[in-house]
Design brief:
- The protein is mainly beta.
- It folds into two domains: 92 residues, Ribosomal Protein L25, Chain P, CATH 2.40.240; 81 residues, Beta Complex (RNA Polymerase Alpha Subunit, Chain A, domain 2).
- 14% of the residues lie in helices and 37% in strands.
- Strand 4 and strand 5 form a beta hairpin.
- The radius of gyration is 30 Å and the shape is globular.
- Pfam families: Ribosomal_L25p, Ribosomal_TL5_C.
- This is one of the proteins that binds to the 5S RNA in the ribosome where it forms part of the central protuberance.
- Keywords: Ribonucleoprotein, Ribosomal protein, RNA-binding, rRNA-binding.
- InterPro entries: Rbsml_bL25/Gln-tRNA_synth_N, Ribosomal_bL25/Gln-tRNA_synth, Ribosomal_bL25_b-dom, Ribosomal_bL25_C, Ribosomal_bL25_long, Ribosomal_L25_dom, Ribosomal_uL5_bac-type.
């Protein structure tokens, strides 16, 4: 049984209008996808879903309680409104605890705000790594400590110690770069000098002198 639990209710109605009504009631339209079984339309409490996503993320097994029946699931995908603090939809994926599963696990760079070599710029090229493992072995995240990196240092997928275990099969290329530390580039600020045709330059006093000469003549 998972330490993360979420209650859900079946919903009979679907469609845009019904989904809007659910969101107005602080409920999130959801769907459970299951292998060799019918998909189930659901609704979950927005506050409960938000708490689960913050604590479990998208790589932890969740015990989804549907009308008293427990199903082991992963969060397959969720959508948020681009402007409002609101979930639009969430998809769950049913899993069998004895079957291998392919998942993407977040890569977290530890001490990225405490890198000893300063000034420096840390560039993270890879946010997730794909692995295959049993559902009970899925890590919430994998980590790399970047505090002691030097200019030009690079971490690759093969440097992630947590995944060097027989229970994991790494599907991402082991040589793929996760992050690199580089020296910041100096900004060269040049004064912009506009090319101006000499004929376009106004000479103050020239016309006045000519006018004065004409009057004298």
């Amino acid at each position: 049984m998972s330490e993360f639990k979420l209650n859900a209710e079946r919903r009979g109605s679907t469609g845009t209008g019904h989904s809007r009504q659910l969101r107005a009631e602080k409920l999130v339209p959801a769907q459970l996808y299951q292998r060799n079984e019918e998909n189930i339309n659901l609704q979950v409490e927005e506050k409960d879903l938000d708490k689960i996503i913050e604590t479990a993320g998208t790589s932890a097994i969740i015990s989804l309680m549907i009308d008293g029946e427990e199903k082991n699931v992963l969060i397959r995908e969720y959508q948020r409104h681009p402007f409002k603090n609101q979930y639009l939809h969430v998809d769950f994926l049913g899993v069998k605890m004895d079957e291998l599963l392919r998942v993407s696990v977040p890569v977290v760079l530890l001490n990225r705000d405490d890198i000893k070599l300063q000034p420096s710029v840390l560039m993270q090229q890879l946010e997730e790594v794909e692995i295959e493992t049993l559902p009970t072995n899925i890590p919430q995240q994998v980590e790399l400590d970047v505090q002691n990196m030097q200019y030009g240092d690079t971490f690759i997928v093969d440097d992630i110690e947590e995944l060097k275990d027989d229970k994991y099969t790494i599907l991402t290329d082991l040589e793929e770069v996760v992050c690199t530390l580089v020296e910041p580039e100096e900004e060269i600020i040049e004064d912009e000098v506009e090319d101006v045709d000499a004929a376009d330059v106004e000479v103050i006093g020239e016309e006045d002198d000519e006018d004065e000469e004409s009057e004298e003549e």
